[in-house]
Structures are given as structure tokens and as C-alpha cells.
Amino acid sequence: MLKGTIVKGIGGFYYVKTPEGLIECRARGRFRKGGESPMVGDLVRITLTEEDRTKGSVDEILPRKNAFIRPPVANIDQLVVTISVKNPESSLLMADQLTVTAEAAGVLPVICINKQDLDEKRASDIKRIYETTGYTVIMTSAKEETGLDALKAVLKDKITALAGNSGVGKSSLINRLSAEFSLETGSVSDKTQRGRHTTRHTELLELPFGGFVFDTPGFSSYATEGMTAAELANLFPEIKRVEEPCRFVGCAHIAEPDCAVKAALSEGKIAPERYESYQALYQELKQIKPWEIK
After folding, report:
1. CA distance 114 to 38
2. Euclidean distance between the first and the last CA atom of the chain, given in angstroms as a whole number
3. DSSP label of 195
4. Along the 294 residues of the chain, how does pLDDT read in single tens digits?
């Protein structure tokens, strides 16, 4: 059996990068019977057909370090949360939902502020917000081709997915990474300020300077599966690292007195926008009943 990585999945076919080249595979029926499906990014073992050595079957999925359901991808090293400053202006709550989703999966979030050429002040304001998290923050403009060296340094030798609402420029940024990439890009509606999804399937693209980047139809903004309100604070690094203990054990950092997190907020150690996201997500998770947590 050959070992390889699934780099594309489309129409029930899986394309596996192996030392012998790209092999078109079908998954064994036992995966479907067992309720498991291969994902792009999976490390797999395959068997080649005797009739055609460019075709084969996926026989085994090797252990995953992480996996996402929407889109179905596996073994990500980092999630580049892409925020556009304008056209469309990104929701910071959505960006924070994505950082929480990444943290919950043990994936490193990176913040990419794109389209900085459209509003330099807004780009700088967003940068200041996320500098309080400790995440790497880069500023780019796909149109002006600025910040690409910083983006390449972040992506080098890593397996990365870009996430963010449609129209923020994810495909445009990927296209700037190699002359061989020509992903379809879409315009943003003047009326709705929403982009048009242009990616139809998930593919893992090899970067010429080392590493891989996912071209996907887009991450769901928030994955609450298995998450509880009590765990949320640990998914905000600037809240988690507050050293002083709160007055009450199990403090939710919402309405309790003598809260160390709110003290850090007043001292500027936590950005108000991030704290607002924490409050909103906490209230959302509080609505989930214990028996509904998977």
C-alpha cells in the first residue's frame, strides 16, 4: 500500500498525492458503512489498481490531529482568519467566532487584515484590537500586492486554511502566492455588501515556498459542538492569561463583582470589541442545554 495525502475531493473521487504521483481514488465501502468519510488533508493508505496505476482505492485513514465538518478538512496547522476593512466590512464577531472555533480544535489562529488600501485607519484600528490577543496579525492588500511577504512567512511549511466571510479576498490572496494559482474570484454586491462564493470544492494547494493552503468553499462561522459556556474563557487567550484570580470561583466574567477580567478590560489589556464578542458568545452557549452538548 502507498501512503499519501488527499489534496482534492470532488464527486466521490479523492485525489491523493503520493511519491508515485497523483492517484485518483474511490473510498472503500466500509468507510460509508462505518459512518466515516475521507477528508481533504487526510493522510491515507491506498492500493493501486492493477489495470491502471494512476487509479486506486483509499483503504485506511491515518489518525487525524484535528478535523472540521463544514468544510470537511483535516490536519490543519493554522487558520488564517481573514478580515476585510471595507467592501465588505467584516463582522468582528464573526472573526472572533472563527478564532474560538480554531482554538477549540487546537488550531493556531492568525489574523490577516486584507484590503488595507481601502481604509488605512480602519485597518490600523482592527490591528490594535487583535494585538491584545497575542495572535500574529498581518496587514495585506491583494489588489496592491502589499503584505504578501509577511503572509508567505506565516504560511511557509504549514498546512493552512483561510477563513472569513465571502468577499474578503481569500481567493485573491491565494492567487498572489504563486503564478500557477488561478482561483476564480467574485465581486461584492453594492446592495448587500456580501461576496459571492466562487469555490465549488475543497482542494489542498502546494505552495512553491513550502507548505500547503486549502482552497475551500468556506468555514462555517461558528462550531459549537462539544463547547460549553464555562469553557469559553479559555478560548480567548487574552482572558485566559489574566493572572489575578476573580473573587468568585467559576466567575463567568459577565456580571459578577471583583472580576479580574473586567479589571483587565478597564486597564486596556483586553480590547472592548473582543470582550463584547465574549459576552455574545457566552450568552449563546448558555442557551444550549446540557443534553444537547455532543
Report:
1. 32
2. 35
3. B
4. 899 999 999 989 999 999 999 999 999 988 878 888 999 999 999 999 999 999 999 999 999 999 988 888 999 999 999 999 999 988 999 999 999 999 999 999 999 999 999 999 999 999 999 999 999 999 999 999 999 999 999 999 999 999 988 889 998 999 999 988 877 765 444 443 444 444 457 889 999 999 999 877 677 656 777 789 999 999 999 999 998 999 999 999 999 999 999 999 999 999 999 999 999 999 999 988 766 665
Closest CA to 205 of 216, 214, 196, 217: 214
- DSSP strand E in 210-267: where? 212-215
Buried b (16+ CB within 10 A) or exposed e, 247-261: eeeebbbeeeeebbb
**In which residue are the cell numbers 490577516 written?**
112
**DSSP secondary structure code for residue 245 in this structure:** P
Respond yes or no on whether the N-terminal peptide bond of residue 217 is cis (omega within 30° of 0). Answer: no
Q: Cβ of 34: how many Cβ atoms within 10 Å?
A: 9
